[in-house]
């Protein structure tokens, strides 16, 4: 089943060796479903057990979503780590956990450059938001690739995903960032709605972008898989 | 051989088109000017000023009672009196008006009327005391002004009783005489002698009207005392004199204190205390002379503001703080007149002494006609105000009541007053109706017919009742019981007519000429297309293809740039985005910065510059937020919530000290950078001297600031000279540098230098020549912003070639990068906002116009103000754009073709820059057109429009100058180049 594409040997999913870039459509669906379910659980917990929403208490809600979502993301993506022979599962989990604050720093820096409010009253909100953004963008890549700079560069600077796992990491991450960027648009408007506050609409935009990205990535994997089948035939 | 031929062809084509392109910049400037001129003619308010004047005899054509009616029935003892007055019976003989410029409502009203007492409240205690002790003869009013709230417009509005137009704002620097009929004119016409002292704007408005005048210069805002002391010197003696009927004293101290120090400051409080003591003395004098037969037996005393001010001391807009001012009115007639409680618009509250105190409400529109009625002169022809019942009542009951109603013995005094007031309102309504009719007949675009018919109906209704009411007023009428209710109904009818006229005038006085606006907008659109095709032609003629096949990133970059420009343009559709324009620009700039970072990560190159650029943007955004919070403090449309609160509580002195030291350090860094340029490069002749002169200027600036802030105390000897001497030297040096550059341009012939390098040196020389003046005008923030400008420009220049160089084997031929140009333009916008400016007239830093000069000269101060406002956002960026080209190609020797390409690239960059600016302005024009009935059109959209338009024209002019400056080098070089190729 090995297919040559761009001079790059794609290993089959069953082998799960080499770059680990190939997973089946059903696996991709399961991963996405797990992440989406975790998000839903996070919202559900926040609303029903803590009776807070993103609007009423963004900081706590984001934290709750983060607490529920992060183990799911880290544990599932670590399973599909690159070079599973050289890298143990726990090491991949550790990489993911380390990637969380690192990505948060990058995201927070970007947000501040773009104009997010800074101040003591905004600190917890910004912190939790950037951790969540990090979970959407950096953590999967950190779990899978670790500190392999060339892979990061390929995914996030060139945006050239090659295998289905690349799609799964790359597209939702971009979706989250672009969603957050668009989410900032209503903030200056004078509608006087509570959700215009930082980081509510930005977080909402990121969530929507992330979910759309998930769907799109599954679509890409489907199309890609079919093309590979055709080529193979 | 073939290659040589093509290069020769190209060279010829280049020389042809090169001339053309320089011409193109001038052409596009003319097109922009025409478009803007046409649009502005259609958009900015144009109210036709009618040349007619009211006359005493006019009243005979009105349906109302006038004095000859009563004279027929009364004994002829009134005959002599009827010569002295015209339309209404004079209620007062003399009038003292004290105008306190920028008098906020809360300066006068007791602090109990507000949520919490502030340090500047309760300082004019004498007024409060009188208002509460003699509540029937003295009262405080809340006076509502109409925007624009600048002194000249307000004085015009107060005296004409009309609504001055927005375009008059521009005339505020050189006030023209009022040609319309006005209160002062009527007073003179009726033989009243008017004495004026204080603000010389009055003299500009009424050059020939005053019997005596003591004007004092008003435009030096730093001077708190000249005008006031002049007023005080002349006011008190004048009160003992008999040779005037109306006295106007205009104090400016509060306005100037607000402009310089803000409302919450010691100088302001001291000013108010000083005014309190002056008012005490004035009232004392008036009081002492108010006995029977005294000089001021029947004098009316007014203390009023022309407009309010924000806490920062700014005014001009339509914010509540700016339009709310105060009038204190007091009559010295004894016994006081009865007040009709029915027409009270007042609200009452306990004052400081726990006494009940009421405050009335007056529109400034009503001032002219009310005062005319009180003094018994004919109402100004163009007045659309109504005679305010409360203000009129304060003095209006003080006739020796032998009028038409006096033979009704049973009637109360109040009834008499109402009878008289009904008649005054009748005259008032008749006069307003006459004005509306004549105005709509003689003005090209008057009021719409349905509005006119509605107003006419109201008037007809009121007139219908009038005939019956009139009978009640006539002396032979005896039954007085029913009259009070009839009067009241009649008064209500007139009120509804007059208020609907005022409402109509307010809403419809903006005579938008949609046809002209559409033509202007169309020409702007055409100019955009011209720009676009010119860019395409330049790239074609120079062999730089815009949608390049060489570089796969190019279309994406192009689309991305287009997207950014479109977002910025569309953001002007919403008032919220205009208010936060700085933040929007910053957001977009940061987005481009992130895209850049992505590219540099991709190529693994120049990561440091990319991150530094993002860091710089983060710093700039804090500066923008500080500016925004300053704006929010003054703007009525924004609520201040500074998301970035400064956690430190350093004492004022220490923080200014630190600011001084940091900015002087930044200056030293700047000087060092320039010194390095001189030392490093082979810097020939003229340019070297220019840069050295700039370093000298920087040193002077540092010395100047050190002296200003008294960091160095020992040079106090030069007190008189030092303040203005150094800035003037710096201006002179800057001017000399520019002259030197022009001369160098004419003289320079040698072609030894590397083309790009000489361009670089020219750019640096030009920038440094401009920078010293801009920096000293911007104050201590100047060097920091200049530093930010340099870092930002350097990063953009270094980053622009990241995505090409990997693929292009020939670095010189890379096409101009639209992303860099939009970054440059967004950076310029960010610098505008981070240097503490914003698009409103209160965002102008008037103080900058007086650095180095004390007295006001229109052109000189306007130039300085323009340099301060647009220095960092237009002048430096436009001249600095060449840096983007020159920096890129510094290394290596260029062939002739590459040299030629460099200049084509420069041309193209200037075109793209111009296109981006023009697109933004076109969007502003479109938005202003769409939002022309918006609530904030005069508060927000119109100032933004004016700023953008001025910015566009300035950019066009600067691009033209820059193109002649930079491209003349090419022409000098053309001759040898062509000779070489011919050989």
Secondary structure blueprint with pairings:
The complex is a heterodimer of chains A (233) and B (983).
Chain A: E1 3-5, E2 8-10, H1 25-48, H2 58-79, H3 89-114, H4 123-145, H5 149-157, H6 164-183, H7 200-232
Helix pairs in contact in A: 1-2, 1-7, 2-3, 2-4, 3-4, 4-6, 6-7
Chain B: H1 2-43, H2 67-73, H3 79-82, E1 94-100, H4 105-108, H5 125-133, E2 138-144, H6 151-160, H7 183-189, E3 194-199, H8 201-205, E4 212-216, H9 226-239, E5 246-251, H10 253-261, H11 266-288, E6 299-304, H12 320-323, E7 324-331, E8 347-350, E9 356-363, H13 367-375, H14 389-396, H15 413-442, H16 449-473, H17 483-508, H18 514-541, H19 553-571, H20 575-579, H21 581-603, H22 607-634, H23 652-680, H24 685-708, H25 719-747, H26 755-778, H27 782-799, H28 802-805, H29 818-834, H30 858-888, H31 896-930, H32 937-982
Parallel strand pairs in B: 1-5, 1-6, 2-9, 3-4, 3-5
Antiparallel strand pairs in B: 2-7, 6-7, 8-9
GO molecular function, one term (chain B): mannose-ethanolamine phosphotransferase activity
Keywords (chain B): Endoplasmic reticulum, Glycoprotein, GPI-anchor biosynthesis, Membrane, Transferase, Transmembrane, Transmembrane helix
Pathway (chain B): Glycolipid biosynthesis; glycosylphosphatidylinositol-anchor biosynthesis
User: Helix fraction of chain B?
Assistant: 55-70%
Overall geometry of chain A comes to globular
Could you say which structural class the secondary elements and strand pairing of chain A correspond to? mainly alpha
Indicate the low-confidence ranges of chain B by residue numbers: 1-19, 68-83, 168-175, 398-410, 545-551, 635-650, 805-813, 971-983
The biggest sheet of chain B, with number of strands, parallel, antiparallel or mixed sense and barrel status, is: 9 strands, mixed
How many helices of chain B does DSSP assign?
Answer: 32
First-to-last CA distance of chain B? 12 Å
- Note poorly predicted spans of chain A: 1-20
Strand-pairing-aware structural class of chain B: mainly alpha
Per DSSP E runs of 2 or more residues, the count of β-strands of chain B stands at: 9
Which of globular, elongated, flat, extended, rod-shaped describes the shape of chain B?
A: elongated
Main β-sheet of chain A, in a few words? 2 strands, antiparallel
Strand content of chain A: under 5%
What topology, given as strand order, has the largest sheet of chain B?
4-3-5-1-6-7-2-9-8
Question: How many helices of chain A does DSSP assign?
Answer: 7
Q: Estimate percent helicity of chain A.
A: 55-70%
In total, the number of domains of chain B comes to 3
Based on CA atoms alone, the radius of gyration of chain A comes out at: 18 Å
């Amino acid at each position: 089943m090995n297919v040559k594409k761009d001079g790059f040997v794609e290993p089959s999913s069953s082998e799960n060796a080499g770059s680990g870039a190939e997973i089946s459509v059903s696996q991709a669906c399961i991963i996405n479903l797990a992440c989406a379910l975790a998000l839903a659980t996070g919202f559900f917990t926040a609303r029903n057990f803590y009776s807070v929403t993103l609007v009423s208490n963004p900081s706590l809600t984001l934290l709750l979503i983060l607490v529920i979502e992060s183990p799911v993301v880290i544990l599932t993506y670590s399973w599909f780590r690159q070079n599973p022979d050289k890298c143990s599962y726990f090491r991949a989990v550790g990489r993911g956990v380390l990637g969380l604050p690192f990505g948060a720093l990058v995201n927070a820096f970007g947000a501040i450059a773009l104009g997010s409010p800074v101040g003591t009253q905004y600190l917890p909100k910004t912190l939790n938001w950037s951790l969540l953004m990090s979970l959407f963008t950096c953590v999967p890549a950190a779990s899978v690739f670790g500190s392999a700079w060339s892979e990061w560069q390929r995914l996030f600077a060139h945006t050239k995903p090659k295998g289905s796992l690349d799609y799964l990491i790359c597209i939702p991450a971009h979706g989250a960032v672009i969603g957050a960027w668009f989410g900032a648009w209503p903030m200056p408007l004078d509608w006087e709605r509570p959700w215009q506050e930082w980081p509510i609409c930005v977080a909402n935009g990121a969530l929507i972008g992330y979910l759309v990205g998930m769907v799109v990535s599954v679509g890409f994997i489907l199309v890609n898989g079919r093309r590979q089948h055709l080529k193979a035939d | 051989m073939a290659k040589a031929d093509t290069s020769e062809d190209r060279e010829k084509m280049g020389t042809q088109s090169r001339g053309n392109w320089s011409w193109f910049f001038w052409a596009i400037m003319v097109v922009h000017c025409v478009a803007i001129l046409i649009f502005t003619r259609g958009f900015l308010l144009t109210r036709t000023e009618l040349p007619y004047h009211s006359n005493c005899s006019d009243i005979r054509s009105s349906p109302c009672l006038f004095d000859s009616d009563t004279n027929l029935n009364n004994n002829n003892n009134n005959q002599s009196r009827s010569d002295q007055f015209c339309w209404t019976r004079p209620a007062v003989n003399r009038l003292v008006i004290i105008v306190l410029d920028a008098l906020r409502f809360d300066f006068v009203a007791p602090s109990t009327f507000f949520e919490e007492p502030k340090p500047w409240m309760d300082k004019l205690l004498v007024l409060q005391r009188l208002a509460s002790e003699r509540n029937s003869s003295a009262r405080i009013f809340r006076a509502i002004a109409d925007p624009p709230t600048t002194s000249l417009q307000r004085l015009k509005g107060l005296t004409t009783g009309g609504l001055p137009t927005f375009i008059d704002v521009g005339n505020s620097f050189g006030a023209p005489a009022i040609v319309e009929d006005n209160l002062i004119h009527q007073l003179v016409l009726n033989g009243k002698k008017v004495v004026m002292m204080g603000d010389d704007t009055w003299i500009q408005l009424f050059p020939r009207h005053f019997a005596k005048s003591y004007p004092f210069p008003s435009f030096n805002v730093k001077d708190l005392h000249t005008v006031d002391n002049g007023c005080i010197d002349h006011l008190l003696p004048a009160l003992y004199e008999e040779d005037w009927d109306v006295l106007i004293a205009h104090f400016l101290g509060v306005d100037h204190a607000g402009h310089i120090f803000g409302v919450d400051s010691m100088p302001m409080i001291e000013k108010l205390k000083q005014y309190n003591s002056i008012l005490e003395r004035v009232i004392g004098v008036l009081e002492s002379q108010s006995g029977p037969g005294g000089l001021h037996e029947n004098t009316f005393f007014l203390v009023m503001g022309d407009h309010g001010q924000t806490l920062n001391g700014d005014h001009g807009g339509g914010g509540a703080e700016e339009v709310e001012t105060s009038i204190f009115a007091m009559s010295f007639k004894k016994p006081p007149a009865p007040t009709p409680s029915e027409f009270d618009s007042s609200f009452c509250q306990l004052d400081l002494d726990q006494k009940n105190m009421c405050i009335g409400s007056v529109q400034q529109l009503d001032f002219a006609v009310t005062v005319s009625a009180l003094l018994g002169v004919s109402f100004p022809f163009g007045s659309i105000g109504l005679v305010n019942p409360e203000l009129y009542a304060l003095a209006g009951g003080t006739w020796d009541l032998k009028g038409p109603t006096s033979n009704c013995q049973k009637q109360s005094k109040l009834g008499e007053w109402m009878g008289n007031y009904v008649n005054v309102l009748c005259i008032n309504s008749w006069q307003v109706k006459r004005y509306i009719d004549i105005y709509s007949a003689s003005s090209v675009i008057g009021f719409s017919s349905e509005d006119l018919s509605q107003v006419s109906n109201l008037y007809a209704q009121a007139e219908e009742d009038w005939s019956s009411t009139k009978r009640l007023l006539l002396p032979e009428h005896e039954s007085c019981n029913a009259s009070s209710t009839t009067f009241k109904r009649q008064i209500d009818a007139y009120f509804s007519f007059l208020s609907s006229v005022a409402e109509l005038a307010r809403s419809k006085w903006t005579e938008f000429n949609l046809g002209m606006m559409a033509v202007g907008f169309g020409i702007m659109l055409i100019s955009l297309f011209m720009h676009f095709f010119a860019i395409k032609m330049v790239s074609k003629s120079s062999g730089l293809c815009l949608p390049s096949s060489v570089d796969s990133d190019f279309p994406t970059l192009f689309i991305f740039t287009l997207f950014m420009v479109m977002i910025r343009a569309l953001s002007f559709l919403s008032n919220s985005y205009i208010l936060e324009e700085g933040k929007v620009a910053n957001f977009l700039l940061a987005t481009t910065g992130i895209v850049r970072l992505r590219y540099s990560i991709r190529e693994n190159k120049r990561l440091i510059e990319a991150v530094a650029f993002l860091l710089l943007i983060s710093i700039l955004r804090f500066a923008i937020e500080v500016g925004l919070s300053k704006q929010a403090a003054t703007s009525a449309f924004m609520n201040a919530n500074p998301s970035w609160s400064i956690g430190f509580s350093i004492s004022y002195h220490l923080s200014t000290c630190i600011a001084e030291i940091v900015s002087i350090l930044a200056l030293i860094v700047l000087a060092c950078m320039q010194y390095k340029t001189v030392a490093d490069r082979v810097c020939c002749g003229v340019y070297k001297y220019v840069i050295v002169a700039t370093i000298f200027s920087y040193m002077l600036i540092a010395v100047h600031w050190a002296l200003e802030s008294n960091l160095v105390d020992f040079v106090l000897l030069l007190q008189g000279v030092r303040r203005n001497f150094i800035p003037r030297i710096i201006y002179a040096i800057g001017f000399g540098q520019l002259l030197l550059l022009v001369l160098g341009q004419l003289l320079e012939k040698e072609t030894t230098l590397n083309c790009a390098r000489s361009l670089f040196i020219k750019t640096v020389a030009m920038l440094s020549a401009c920078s010293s003046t801009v920096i000293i005008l911007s104050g201590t923030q100047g060097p920091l912003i200049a530093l930010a400008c340099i870092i930002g420009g350097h990063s953009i220049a270094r980053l622009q070639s990241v995505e090409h160089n990997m693929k292009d084997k020939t670095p010189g031929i890379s096409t101009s990068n639209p992303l860099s140009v939009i970054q440059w333009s967004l950076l310029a916008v960010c610098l505008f906002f981070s240097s503490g400016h914003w698009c409103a007239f209160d965002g102008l830093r008037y103080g900058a116009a007086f650095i180095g000069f004390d007295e006001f000269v229109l052109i000189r101060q306007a130039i300085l103000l323009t340099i301060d406002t647009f220095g960092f956002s237009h002048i430096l960026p436009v001249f600095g754009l060449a840096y983007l080209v020159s920096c890129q190609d510094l290394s290596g020797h260029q062939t002739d073709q590459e040299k030629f390409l460099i200049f084509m690239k420069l041309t193209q960059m200037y075109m793209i820059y111009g296109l981006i600016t023009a697109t933004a302005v076109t969007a502003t024009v479109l938005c202003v057109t769409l939002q022309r009935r918006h609530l904030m059109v005069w508060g927000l959209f119109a100032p933004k429009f004016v700023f953008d338009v001025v910015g566009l024209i300035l950019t066009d002019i600067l691009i033209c100058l820059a193109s002649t400056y930079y491209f003349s080098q090419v022409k000098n070089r053309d001759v040898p180049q062509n000779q070489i190729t011919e050989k």
